[in-house]
Amino acid sequence: MIKIVEVGPRDGLQNESKFLNTNVKASFIKDLSLAGLKNIEISSFVSPKAIPQMKDSQDLVGLLEKEKFYKSVLIPNMKGYEISEKFEIDEISLFTTTSETFCRKNTNCSIDESLRRIQDIIRENAGKRKIRGYLSTVFGCPYEEMIPLKKVLSSIEKLFSLGCEEVSLGDTTGVAYPKQVRLYLKEIKKNFGLEKIAMHFHDTQGMALANVSESLEEGVEIFDSSAAGLGGCPYAKGASGNVATEDLVNFFQRNEIDVGVDLKNLVMASQEILKLLGKESNSKVHQLIKRKYEL
Amino acid sequence: MIKIVEVGPRDGLQNESKFLNTNVKASFIKDLSLAGLKNIEISSFVSPKAIPQMKDSQDLVGLLEKEKFYKSVLIPNMKGYEISEKFEIDEISLFTTTSETFCRKNTNCSIDESLRRIQDIIRENAGKRKIRGYLSTVFGCPYEEMIPLKKVLSSIEKLFSLGCEEVSLGDTTGVAYPKQVRLYLKEIKKNFGLEKIAMHFHDTQGMALANVSESLEEGVEIFDSSAAGLGGCPYAKGASGNVATEDLVNFFQRNEIDVGVDLKNLVMASQEILKLLGKESNSKVHQLIKRKYEL
Fold first, then answer.
1. HSE (CB half, 13 Å, CA atoms) of B133?
2. Which residues of B participate in catalysis according to the annotation?
3. Cα(B134)–Cα(A46) distance, rounded to whole angstroms?
4. B204 touches chain A (CB under 8 A)
5. Are A232 and A240 in contact (CB under 8 A)?
6. Which residue in A2, A139, A205, A233 has the most chain B C-beta atoms within 10 A of its own C-beta, making it the best mutation to test that interface?
7. Does B284 contact A177 at a Cβ distance shorter than 8 Å?
8. Residue A94: strand pairing partners
9. How far does B177 lie from chain A, in Å, by closest CA?
């Protein structure tokens, strides 16, 4: 059973420079849910100074509380956690990385400090909401030459032992390639199984679906993606961000795996957002569907 | 040992509506060769009425005769073959398809007739030049619901028995998907081995590299691609055509397979052509390299 985690409203939009109106975002997210996406990361409770695109996150989450899909919010620290307690959400996601340099540049703390934050939040949460752990720069880092597989394995171990119920492995800069993915997943499978492992690929080099295909063959069942390929790569200006949900859904459909998502409705869900951002979708499948139905 | 067959100057440019000056094409092809591409399909001796973009094919081939790379030209019929005899080329490529409807619409003859043409040309060639056979619509056809694998196998058998020394399997409309590719290749391997089989993927659904990855794992060593992703899909206006050579080369490089191509020089080779066509490359790797070196 394949599970798609839609991260466009969070990972996608936080990498778009423009701020979008709260109502526009809320109806985008509702439309994604109507198109059949069951798990959506809707926003993050981060400092509005750090990520101004998310400054309305409380209003947005408030507007969506009663919706029926499985709702997740990203939380960077205890302050964000305290805000999250005001809302009915199903899951909170927390993050760390395999790279010390990336951790300092991205979150201004050491890996140990980020793990302590995760530990404190999980303790405070006391099982109330499901916990998803993000591990970034798994397949490579823009600052450190090479992340040893051993380091990746010990980071995953740490996240599970702290109480994460799912760990999403981020190819943050889109450098993963099939042979590497296979090698890493074989080791991960040996150590932890793959039931609670999600793959979070970026399509920077157009290789995301090749990596998805490899992961699927190894037995992974959870994949993160962003509608219309929203977002980008902060480390390569103008490059693609997360793999597009359209490409992922079409990939599964072609492989005779039903994920319960209607591609036409999915493409329609992001039309308004793309217009406001003044950009075309990076997704080839998005463009095909748009032409097919003259959207 | 991986072999890349660059088909941009033929399959790419025949799907671009604009006619390009012969000298522009010649220097494009020379630059591709200088970037490290060793096998290039430079043009086709088709009727200028059918494909006006190729109306200067004799002049172009004449200009390139003395170049050192392995030169191939596509030939649709005996008339084209007779023209080809005037030139020093290494290989002629001939084509048929698995779909009766596609054959009639595309070449205005039956599959049997197209095979007879191939037979006559191979007899006339009498071993002088190497023969490559193209088999199109292998993984699906825009007109026929489903091409049975049995039909694909018997078509390959026919092409080898007529004397083709290499058979390129065309995913003409870009509908192939990894599971199908694996299934087909396992059967093809059983029947013919894979040494003389080339894969010719189109990136219509962004799945070309996933299919390449699958093919590589099964043991395929020959791949067709088009520099800058030139060309398009006549069956889906505006959609991507052949997988881009940049994406393919980068894929192999990331997988630690040296194909002897310099990515920067490869990207530079198509800059003039893209400018004249007034389009951006569809290839994500092309865009990344362009930004990296500010080309």
1. 27
2. 233
3. 56
4. yes
5. yes
6. A205
7. no
8. A133
9. 6
Facing B177 at nearest CB: one of A205, A239, A255: A255
Q: What is the DSSP letter of B54?
A: G
Q: Is A2 on the interface with B (CB under 8 A)?
A: no
Among A residues 206-245, those touching chain B with beta carbons less than 8 Å apart: 206-207, 209-210, 212-214, 236-240, 244
Q: Which amino acid is at A6?
A: E
List the single residue in B178, B214, B284 with the smallest CB-CB distance to A204: B284
- What does the buried/exposed string (b/e) look like for A261-293 if buried means 16 or more CB atoms within 10 Å of the residue's CB? bebeebbbbbbebbeebeeebbbbbbbbbbeee
Contact between B204 and A288 using a beta-carbon 8 Å cutoff: yes
Helical H runs in A65-220? 78-84, 100-107, 111-125, 149-162, 178-192, 208-218
The verdict on a CB contact (< 8 Å) between A251 and B179 is no
Helix, strand, coil percentages for chain B (3-state, nearest 5): 45, 15, 40
Q: What is A25-79 written as a DSSP string? A: HHHHHHHHHHTT--EEEEEE---TTT-GGGTTHHHHHHHHTT-SSEEEEE--SHH
Q: What is the mean pLDDT of each run of 10 residues along chain A (295 residues)?
A: 96 91 97 98 94 94 96 97 97 96 91 96 97 96 88 98 98 94 98 98 95 97 96 77 96 95 98 94 93 90
Residue A20 has, within 13 A of its CA and on its CB side, a CA count of 26
pLDDT at A192: 98
Report all structural domains of chain B as residue ranges with CATH numbers, in order of start.
Answer: 3-293 (3.20.20.70)
Query: Is A58 part of the contact surface with chain B (CB cutoff 8 Å)?
Result: no
Contact B209 A207 (CB under 8 A): yes
Predicted TM-score of the model (pTM)? 0.95
Is residue A181 within 8 angstroms of chain B, CB to CB? no
Chunked into runs of 10 residues, chain B (295 residues) has average pLDDT values of 96 91 97 98 94 94 96 97 97 96 91 96 97 96 88 98 98 94 98 98 95 97 96 76 96 95 97 94 93 89
SS3 at position A166: strand
Question: Quick one: pLDDT at residue B145?
Answer: 74
Q: Rounded distance, CA B132 to CA B72, Å?
A: 9
A233 catalytic residue (yes or no): yes
Whether residue A239 and residue B179 make contact (CB cut-off 8 A), yes or no, is: no
Please report the ipTM that was assigned to this predicted complex: 0.93
Name the residue type at position A230. Answer: L
